[in-house]
Amino acid sequence: MSSTDAKPLTGIRVADLSRVLAGPYATMLLADLGAEVVKVEHPGRGDDTRSWGPPWADEEAAYFLSVNRGKRSLAVDVKDPEALDAVAELCARSDVVVQNFRPGVVERLGLGYADVRRRNPGVVYCSISGFGPEHEPAGRPGFDLIVQAESGLMAATGEPGGAAAKVGVAITDVLTGLNAAVSILGALVRARATGIGEHVTVSLINSALSGLASLSQGALVTGEEPQRYGNAHATIVPYQVFPTGDADIVVAAGNDSLYRRLCAVLNRPDLADDPRYATNPQRVAHRDGLVAQISAALRGRTAEEWVKLLMEAGVPVGRVRGVLDAVRAADAAGDGATVAVDHPTAGPLELLRAGFRSASAGGAEEPPLPPPLLGQHSADVLAELGLAEADIARLVERGAVRRGGVR
């Protein structure tokens, strides 16, 4: 592969000591960009998410499959001194180390930032936690559900007057994975230019707080807690879910011009001319009356008809889809949302692609490595680190290493 054909992170090695979602999501994105990612797992149970099923593809949990494409699996027991030495060697030879152990664990293992940096001054070392290194009480475990509650995200989600609700996916982990990947890339640019590494820290709580964006800024400006608006918008009307004759759609008339186009499609010029609805602040003030009239008008046709008419008029609109329906619709529309890989046990397998597209990162015609079996690459990685075949066999024999997915 020539330098012009190489992916952006070709030649970058990542030692992935993380598990579950935030860390593996970050390292998967780095793998998508061309990095060589070695996933370090326990030889008996592997990443926790290997057992988080159903659903399963063959014997592989869909949860694990969702965030571990493009990686190699090194299954070693870090409580074994020789196996731990191999992991330390991996970190010493890597450009990036990512870990989300409980506070204090990596230091006790001799794999903390200070330990790795002594042998590898240019390393970019990323620590991921629930509540950050300065948070009190120290060492508080972080789970998405807890962080959604503690960050205000849950309080801002749900129907008006109803109970707080969590987002349907572990969104604070996903946001943390994105933040981790961004901070790692920034530190890598600096390290490549100066040879100086960096310890970056990313937490679920700070990712959630920053992810609230305009909502939290509004609270800071007003000094008041935001209200819940369910499937509507606090400051834009109409911008919400509406029923039609057969299914729900979303209409997002985000400015006065779009609102007038909506009224024309609805054949309700009176709503466009009504001074109560002439501007967005006035529509917000008279939300209930306007929404009731738009809802009544939309019930007169099917969702398919309204989507076609509104799109033709340039009014932002979309169907409320199920998850599988959404993926299939995106693929049918040419978005290339999925990529096919050949998994060693599950066979042909569809995986979701990353949210970004770039020519240098490769297109859908370049499938990534499938998510690895537990220990699938242990022997190869250990050999690359300098261990002799006899030493690897001895580690396998005593259960310190899982080799080829079979212990």
List the helices and strands and how they pair.
Blueprint: E1 13-17, H1 22-32, E2 36-41, E3 56-57, E4 60-61, H2 62-66, E5 71-76, H3 81-92, E6 96-99, H4 105-109, H5 113-119, E7 124-129, H6 144-151, H7 171-194, E8 198-203, H8 204-211, H9 214-222, E9 239-243, E10 248-252, H10 256-265, H11 269-273, H12 280-285, H13 287-298, H14 303-312, E11 317-319, H15 323-332, E12 338-343, E13 347-352, H16 378-384, H17 389-397, E14 401-402
Parallel strand pairs: 1-2, 1-6, 2-5, 6-7, 7-8
Antiparallel strand pairs: 3-4, 5-14, 9-10, 10-11, 12-13
Question: Characteristics of this structure?
Answer:
407 residues; alpha/beta; Rossmann fold; formyl-coa transferase, domain 3; 2 domains; 3-stranded antiparallel β-sheet; 17 helices; 14 strands
Structure description:
The chain is built from 17 helices and 14 strands. It has 407 residues and is of the alpha/beta class. It folds into 2 domains: 269 residues, Rossmann fold; 72 residues, formyl-coa transferase, domain 3 (2-Layer Sandwich), CATH 3.30.1540.10. A 7-stranded mixed sheet has the order 8-7-6-1-2-5-14, with helices on both faces. A 3-stranded antiparallel sheet has the order 9-10-11, covered by helices on one side. A hairpin with a 3-residue loop joins strand 12 and strand 13. Helix 6 packs across helix 8 and helix 7 packs across helix 8. The chain starts with 12 loop residues before the first strand and ends in a 5-residue tail after the last strand.
